[in-house]
Specification:
Region (Disordered): 1-24
Structural class: alpha+beta
Number of helices: 6
Largest sheet: 3 strands, mixed
Distance between the termini: 59 Å
Shape: globular
Radius of gyration: 20 Å
Organism: Ranitomeya imitator (mimic poison frog)
Pfam family, one: Fer2
Number of strands: 5
Order of helices and strands: HHEEHEHHEEH
Bound molecules: FE2/S2 (inorganic) cluster
Protein name: 2Fe-2S ferredoxin-type domain-containing protein
Cofactor: [2Fe-2S] cluster
Length: 163
């Protein structure tokens, strides 16, 4: 830190900085544990997203990372994607896969199925991005973002306000 910055530091800044460093270490430990349990922390899997406007967005993923986490971490510009942050309450993370990729995905749960029923433009190969975790077998996949989205939470609020 420059002398000017340290002259302007408020009282207690050292302690706040120490707390921040401890927080960072704690976060790193949690992240390391997650990837030890769920895969590697190496970012070596590729995913292509065909966005609503037809533009292809490419990002590198870590094994075990969900497609929602990938979109957020890379700040991919997909309008409205992941509004409920992966709590299975919105269906805005709806993605469409090709049949070959779809057949390799983890089994779908009843909760995901219920939320998918509310998704815009549902297809036979639709899944929710917050429920799909990257594996080596999925390296290089291309997924399509539907032309529009529906947010189950917003739709519910609108219905209630009409009643
Ligand atoms: S982010 Fe809301 S259901 Fe996936």
């Amino acid at each position: 830190m420059s002398p000017l910055c340290s002259a302007l530091r408020p009282a207690g800044a050292d302690s706040a900085e120490k707390q921040n460093a401890e927080g960072r270490d704690r976060h790193r430990n949690i992240t390391d544990r997650f990837f030890l349990a769920n895969g590697t922390s190496e970012e070596n899997l590729k995913v292509n997203f065909i966005n609503r406007d037809g533009e292809t967005l490419t990002a590198t993923a870590k094994e075990g990372e969900s497609l929602l986490e990938l979109v957020i971490r890379h700040h991919l510009s997909i309008d409205g994607f992941g509004a409920c942050e992966g709590t299975l309450a919105c269906s805005t993370c709806h993605l469409i896969f090709d049949q070959k990729t779809f057949d390799q995905l983890s089994p779908i749960t009843d909760e995901e199925m219920d939320m998918l029923d509310l998704a815009f433009g549902l297809t036979k190969t639709s899944r929710l991005g917050c429920q799909i975790c990257m594996t080596k077998a999925l390296d290089g996949i291309t997924v399509r973002v539907p032309k529009d989205l529906s947010d189950a939470r917003r739709d519910q609020v609108e219905q209630q306000s009409k009643q």
